[in-house]
Amino acid sequence: MPALVLLGAQWGDEGKGKATDLLGGSVDYVVRYQGGNNAGHTVVVGDQKYALHLLPSGILSPGCTPVIGNGVVVDPSVLLSELSGLNERGVDTSKLLISGNAHIITPYNVTVDKVTERFLGKRKIGTTGRGIGPTYADKINRVGIRVQDLYDESILTQKVEAALDIKNQVLTKLYNRRAIAVSQVVEELLGYAAQIEQYVADTVLVLNQALEADKVVLFEGGQGTLLDIDHGTYPFVTSSNPTAGGACTGAGVGPTKISRVIGILKAYTTRVGAGPFPTELFDEDGEALRRIGHERGVTTGRDRRCGWFDAVIARYATRVNGLTDFFLTKLDVLTGWEQIPVCVAYEIDGKRVEELPYSQTDFHHAKPVYEMLPGWSEDISKAKTFADLPKNAQDYVKALEEMSGAPISAIGVGPGRDETIEINSFI
Ligand code: GDP
Ligand code: IMO
Ligand code: MG
Questions:
Q1: Do both 117 and 172 map to the same domain?
Q2: pLDDT means per 10 residues in the chain (427 residues)?
Q3: I need a labelling partner for 313 at 20 to 30 A (CA). Which of 51, 186, 190, 397 fits?
Q4: Does the predicted TM-score (pTM) go above 0.85?
Q5: Does residue 149 carry a catalytic annotation?
Q6: 223 is known to lie in a ligand binding site
Q7: Can you give the residue range of the structural domain that contains 69?
């Protein structure tokens, strides 16, 4: 059985954690391929709620091997505290594998993330402050520290020296901060080495051998399509590729192995941090979506910006990811509106535009063109089949499917594992 990718089709927080967990029981490996602990994935199992940041959501499925791929950035202190938090709750994490090529989020990268944001002032990105951007910048600048470097003290020291050489100049001269001592960083990183050694592996080899042996591999994206460094709303993006191609580079698996790409799509839209958001609401409806949908960041605790569903974005996600199908999430949150506006196109400087404009300036000017769909008032949280949904909810799903350009194969009607309507077989 070939590989599947599961990714966010909007600006993140679409419900990827729940979807991954749902599939976790039927797959052999769940692999994170990009991002780091900027992600916040919620999984609800029975009366237990888990918030995962760095670890793949498959870690909660016994029998599934969780993998942190080479494209991920790893903060070792976060990794260890997430592992011990799960162990305390009785979750077995011993199968975890971490790529030796994954880059490490060092303490100075976290510092640089925070001071850069402060320095940008009103032009700030609104990052999660977890050191993600500076760590990827070091990787591209070829001064990054990789997991494998923790096992060679001399190499580690040389690399930290190289990285801090310029950074300390910037920190002291530009940002008026104290210089960071090489020895202090090396000591801290070496302190993690023995604790994570058991997990470090050649994950590229493991995953390709697994695929050869007909195992099922699921790639779990962090963030979302519109936060992609290449295809998102740059510069208001994260510093990696959550889009489908990122799964190949971030895990070392060829595109010929991937047979299904599932886009996780919220029945409305949310965004955290700065950047354009055409359907954003600043009224009572936005407040209601936030309240009913519990739209508060899992990682930073910030309120999420909320707005109506945007079909232009969904179509774009279908295109840039080659989506085979969607999981539509949080349909239950829309219960109670008499009419539900859906953005079908934009008006940009007086012209109707059907597709996402490639120019960032145009996107900033985009005004949503809404179509009104009839709402429903019945409680849908107990629905088990599509036929259980009221007619207007069925029509809403069908309309979104039509506009978004790929079939909807599952519908979320609540946060729990079983609060899901399966339309097509999951695997
Ligand atoms: P992720 O980052 O994509 O994994 O999503 P988050 O976990 O950050 O945010 C999604 C939130 O919606 C979480 O609190 C989930 O428990 C919740 N959730 C997921 N699917 C559904 C659904 O179908 N209905 C409702 N009401 N909540 C859901
Ligand atoms: P999950 O996986 C929503 C946003 C931040 C900021 C921008 C850059 O839970 O969907 P970064 O710290 O990555 O440099 O911040 O990206 N962002 C997210 N928004 N969900 C996420 O993850 C996010 N990860 C980063 O708010 O706007
Ligand atoms: Mg999240």
A1: yes
A2: 92 96 91 97 92 95 96 98 97 97 97 93 94 98 98 98 95 92 98 98 98 96 98 98 98 97 98 97 98 92 96 98 98 98 97 96 97 98 96 97 96 95 76
A3: 51
A4: yes
A5: no
A6: yes
A7: 3-87+203-422
